[in-house]
């Protein structure tokens, strides 16, 4: 599994064999699909133009089919000629973790052994609805593991000769199986009745998973939370009973579940209040002597290009530069956003700006630029070039902002895409952008 997840991240291309190594980005089909190996070209560095560190488009199209050529051309490379690097392809960071490895194994297992058909709409609804519940992730994961028979209950342990017990320690009436823990246990049934979870009459011919899915789907929002909470709570107290000898009573269980559900509601209310506060934040002009740059990208999936926008404003909120560029060979949103930030620094250096505040609504890109650690992601060459460009300024800081505070740049990107404008907006800003810029300044003035 580890070897299947290894991928070469292209730097200078000197260490990567064109035909044998996995170096095409993505989770699948990472090797060049060819029937004939062409010996004169053996390493990826031979596919690059030495003068300007770009891909040799003509050569690549001559060697491989158009789809493969497009995948190659979409790989970012830079003048820095970084070393080639082996990365873990199943995580965007390129770093292998036990969690990501486990996730890959479980995904493969489910794809080969999953109970449901890929066309079973009820199961799709169940999975989507469950992950969307406003409950902690650990509870969602427990329900998912229990549903897919991945918890160490007595039946699973006995099958592996790890215990002699088999009877449910909660009700002491039946064998402890996945079916039992999902709905047959008397203790669980009593909890659902006390919490007014309505279980509709179900066809006796259905297996236990189908019954559980149908009951869950027909429940209303709060009852769905109670179903998930009760499954997790019962497992939690079951383990306390087995491993610590801590007994429980039905009133205690019900109080625990009701209290937990009530606390989740309060947390959600506070989160909504916090989100509302964030929405009330306004765009802030830079201090005197600084220039604030907002960047954004309008990415078109399937077309391998993006329209990026750069908007520069001074301490009075006045637009001093507004530019849109068409960037080709882009098949990833993060690459498009990173290219937008890179173009922003290139533009501002040409204009002679020395002190910058760079804002964008791509958290991934901003994090990469502010962390001093080795980057293994697809945007590694772009991030490295941005860091190199930064050395030509007196001061540069990067800030993540939500979409509402980046609305002017976003609107400019959309306008540039619709009007097919590439370059400086010499005839003035579009009315839509001008209105956003004026609104940004007005809200700031009202706030102070």
TrEMBL record:
InterPro entries: RNase_H-like_dom_plant, RNase_H-like_EbsB-rel, RNaseH-like_sf, RNaseH_domain, RNaseH_sf, RVT-Znf. Pfam families: RVT_3, zf-RVT. Residues 294-414 form the RNase H type-1 domain. Residues 122-192 form the Reverse transcriptase zinc-binding domain. One of its GO terms (molecular function) is RNA-DNA hybrid ribonuclease activity. This is RNase H type-1 domain-containing protein. The lineage of its organism: Eukaryota, Viridiplantae, Streptophyta, Embryophyta, Tracheophyta.
């Amino acid at each position: 599994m580890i070897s299947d997840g290894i991928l070469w991240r292209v730097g200078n291309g000197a260490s990567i064999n064109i035909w044998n190594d996995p170096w095409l980005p993505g989770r699948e089909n990472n090797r060049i699909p060819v029937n004939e190996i062409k010996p004169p070209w053996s390493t990826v560095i031979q596919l690059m133009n030495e003068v300007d560190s770009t891909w040799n488009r003509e050569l690549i199209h001559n060697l491989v089919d158009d789809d493969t050529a497009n995948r190659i051309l979409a790989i970012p490379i830079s003048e820095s000629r970084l070393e080639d690097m082996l990365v873990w392809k199943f995580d965007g960071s390129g770093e292998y973790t036990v969690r990501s490895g486990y996730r890959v194994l479980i995904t493969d297992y489910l794809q080969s052994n999953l109970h449901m058909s890929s066309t079973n709409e009820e199961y799709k609804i169940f999975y989507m609805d469950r992950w969307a519940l406003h409950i902690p992730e650990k509870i969602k994961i427990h329900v998912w593991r229990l549903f897919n028979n991945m918890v160490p209950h007595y039946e699973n342990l006995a099958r592996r000769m790890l215990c002699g017990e088999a009877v449910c320690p909660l009700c002491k009436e039946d064998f402890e199986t996945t079916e039992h823990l999902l709905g047959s246990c008397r203790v669980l049934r009593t909890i659902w009745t006390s919490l007014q979870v309505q279980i509709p009459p179900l066809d006796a011919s259905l297996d236990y998973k189908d019954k559980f899915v149908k009951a869950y789907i027909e429940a209303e929002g709060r009852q769905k939370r109670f179903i998930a909470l009760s499954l997790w709570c019962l497992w939690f107290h079951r383990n306390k009973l087995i491993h610590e000898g801590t007994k429980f009573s039905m009133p205690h269980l019900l109080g625990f579940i009701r209290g937990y559900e009530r606390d989740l509601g309060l947390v959600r209310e506070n989160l909504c209040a916090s989100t509302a506060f964030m929405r009330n934040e306004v765009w802030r002009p830079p201090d005197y002597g600084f220039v604030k740059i907002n960047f954004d990208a309008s990415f078109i999936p399937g077309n391998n290009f993006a329209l990026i926008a750069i908007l520069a404003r001074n301490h009075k909120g006045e637009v001093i530069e507004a530019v849109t560029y068409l960037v080709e060979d882009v098949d990833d949103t993060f690459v498009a956003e990173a290219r937008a930030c890179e173009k922003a620094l290139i533009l501002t250096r040409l204009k002679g700006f020395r002190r910058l505040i760079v804002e964008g609504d791509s958290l991934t890109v901003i994090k990469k630029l502010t962390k001093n650690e080795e980057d293994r992601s697809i945007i590694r060459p772009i991030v490295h070039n941005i860091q190199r460009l930064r050395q030509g300024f007196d001061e540069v800081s990067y800030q993540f902002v939500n979409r509402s505070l980046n609305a002017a740049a976003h609107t400019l990107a959309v306008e540039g895409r619709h009007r097919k404008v590439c370059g400086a907006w010499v005839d003035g800003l579009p009315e839509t952008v001008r209105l956003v810029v004026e609104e940004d300044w007005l809200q700031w003035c009202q706030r102070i």
